[in-house]
């Protein structure tokens, strides 16, 4: 299964790179900043047709809705975000990824995040290690808050409905530095690769984190919602992924304490 996934994700990535030379067709979804392109749709359609043809018994949970109507993760379910970071895809032609995960009865077995522009495939099979292309990713080591690079969207420090903005402001003040890349899947892959130490976000859908959470956990990182609870792989929600130690510390000393 993972060999097919790898082949298809590379093929889809090549088509996305080729699309830079053509004009995009851009539409809005729920609001003027929620965009979708012909390439988001084309990429999801590509995966859906390959999966249906090769694994007719499997189900597909994708952002653009070309798979199945999913209300549970029974059996084998492919969770796909054809382009994670569509705004970056449109504005920058970089900092976006294809995210593909395979869950069996609710357990994440295969996680792949493909940074198309850099040709970097982050992939993990549960229990068999995580890799960046052919290089194994090292187990994550503990980091203190004062040495941590935290990925967080700056607008959440100013206004937030789910958590007192002062809590995030204190955390942002104490860490070594902050980043914001605009692709949840890539940010989770960066946590897994040790490029950043943590990632906090307020509202994601299952396809944004289904693959990245497998990567992070495979190298010993922690993934939960912002309050330390398990993620909801059907409804989505907030997310906090981080190196061991840092995750517990932030929950105890910042988020749950104040
Ligand atoms: C978005 C990206 C972004 C996150 C948004 C997502 P999309 O996914 O992951 O980083 O902040 O919440 O919706 O729509 O570009 O696939
Ligand atoms: Ca989207
Ligand atoms: Ca996404
Ligand atoms: Ca998307």
UniProtKB/TrEMBL annotation:
Record: residues binding Mg(2+): 63, 81, 83-84, 208
InterPro entries per the UniProt record, alphabetical: Inositol_monoP_metal-BS, Inositol_monophosphatase-like, Inositol_monophosphatase_CS
MF terms (GO), sorted A to Z: inositol monophosphate 1-phosphatase activity; metal ion binding
Alphabetical UniProt keywords: Hydrolase, Magnesium, Metal-binding
Lineage: superkingdom: Bacteria
Catalytic activity entry: a myo-inositol phosphate + H2O = myo-inositol + phosphate
Cofactors (names): Mg(2+)
Biological process according to GO: inositol metabolic process; phosphatidylinositol phosphate biosynthetic process; signal transduction
Top EC class, one word: hydrolase
EC number(s) on file: 3.1.3.25
Protein name from the UniProt record: inositol-phosphate phosphatase
Species of provenance: Peribacillus asahii
């Amino acid at each position: 299964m993972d060999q097919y996934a790898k082949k298809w994700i590379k093929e889809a990535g090549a088509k996305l790179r080729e699309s830079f030379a053509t004009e995009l067709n851009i539409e809005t979804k729920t609001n003027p900043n929620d965009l979708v392109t012909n390439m988001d749709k084309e990429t999801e359609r590509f995966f859906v047709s390959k999966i249906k043809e090769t694994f007719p018994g499997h189900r597909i949970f994708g952002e653009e809705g070309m798979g199945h109507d999913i209300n549970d993760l029974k059996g084998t379910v492919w969770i796909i975000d054809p382009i994670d970071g569509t705004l970056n895809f449109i504005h920058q032609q970089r900092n976006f990824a294809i995210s593909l995960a395979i869950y069996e009865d609710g357990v994440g077995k295969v996680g792949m995040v493909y940074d198309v522009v850099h040709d970097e495939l982050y992939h993990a099979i549960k229990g068999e290690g995580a890799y960046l292309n052919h290089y194994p990713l090292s187990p994550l080591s503990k980091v203190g808050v004062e040495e941590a690079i935290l990925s967080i969207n700056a607008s959440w420090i100013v206004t937030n409905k789910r958590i007192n903005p002062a809590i995030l402001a204190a955390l942002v003040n104490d860490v070594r530095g902050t980043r914001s890349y605009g692709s949840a899947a890539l940010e989770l892959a960066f946590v897994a690769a040790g490029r950043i130490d943590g990632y906090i976000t307020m509202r994601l859908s299952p396809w944004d984190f289904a693959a990245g959470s497998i990567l992070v956990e495979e190298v010993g990182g922690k993934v939960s919602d912002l309050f330390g609870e398990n993620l909801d792989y059907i409804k989505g929600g907030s997310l906090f992924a981080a190196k061991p130690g840092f995750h517990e510390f932030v929950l105890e000393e910042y988020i749950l304490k104040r």
